[in-house]
């Protein structure tokens, strides 16, 4: 990836990387907490990342749960990151947001501490962070540079929750990409948006930054994904973050972006993005292999393209676009095969961290059954599959004389066969609506019938007014009758029940 406009320090980058501090070195942060350094496991930006643990007599092992990011004191990116954490990502703010929005997980990085240290006559700034696992870029490389549609849409939905938090706390991330998305160290189902070296305060003191193009500041960010506004040198905005996220999702789905062959020419990339946004939805269709479906991404880009520079996005609407009716019952955490990357080393270039949250799922819990429902639930039923309202076929369970149970469409194995006409029955379905009327006995998801009172004509027209069981001894047809008043009432209830069923479809 080509990354430009990042305010690099003067001189050779290698000279600006700090020398690794010795293992066992003790740091003291501004709150007087002490941290012991372990080995270097990676580097990010212009600094090094050491394993760390609270200072004890023990050495820092490979299973340490903290890292320390150390950079030269005069570096800009780490200072910007610190300001973001201190202003927007305080632990109490994150917890309150999660409670107010009923979230069990939010991948917002927060830090344990920070401070300054001198070693061999040089001054360094450091941050203490939770240790995280591999970045999503490594997952992509292990997955052939593409992710499944379900995974992409679920990741996108989680990132919209993260961006909403950041934006509501006056900041823009500005550099969303797979290398800045990190998985949990122990739980690969957690994902965090890290690296706030380009974070920008777009709404200081209650006033939004004004739209102003500045060619001297043009093309800031990671060239593949940066927004059209950033190409023009306009200060970052909320719509810019959403545009960047859209480009990321498009690349994760298709494996590449239309302008990737022009990354060395920022102006050509800018023109390609403008053309892309002006030619929706055709431009999105052209990115996908023939026959692929991409309506969610099309609708996402269509909405983002209408946003004004200072307009507040409708985050919930965007989440619904990504997780439409086909995905709304899915778990809100992203999914992929961890076998593809479980052996990928964690000492990659972009290593950041965040506060670990418990339970990464938005649970979709079913309502517990009432006591009445439980009492009506038949026991020892052969087919226990729940009813889906969209299914038209019904599995029938009937309780008749002597209370044996007959489940499903049945055929008598004894000759002569008993032919059953359509009975007048009362049944209880999953949505609690009661349906009365003639019904077939086909195969399919189970409907549980209450005990029907039926009138049957058996053999020599003998009338039976009690619940009874079809038997192999019955020679003639079983004829079911009901009086006119009951039938009229049944028709009325049937109409009401049909309306209820349609409403739940």
UniProtKB/TrEMBL annotation:
UniProt-listed SMART domains: S_TKc
PROSITE patterns given in the database record: PROTEIN_KINASE_ATP, PROTEIN_KINASE_DOM, PROTEIN_KINASE_ST
Keywords, alphabetical: ATP-binding, Membrane, Nucleotide-binding, Transmembrane, Transmembrane helix
MF-aspect GO terms: ATP binding; protein serine/threonine kinase activity
Amino acids binding ATP: 69
Domain of life: Eukaryota
Disordered: region residues: 351-384
Entries under InterPro entries matching the protein: CK1_Ser-Thr_kinase, Kinase-like_dom_sf, Prot_kinase_dom, Protein_kinase_ATP_BS, Ser/Thr_kinase_AS
Comp. bias (Basic and acidic residues): 364-382
Residue intervals passing through the bilayer: 484-504
A Pfam family the protein falls into: Pkinase
Record EC number: 2.7.11.1
Domain Protein kinase: 35-335
SUPFAM superfamilies: Protein kinase-like (PK-like) (SSF56112)
The name this protein goes by in its record: non-specific serine/threonine protein kinase
Organism: Chiloscyllium punctatum (Brownbanded bambooshark)
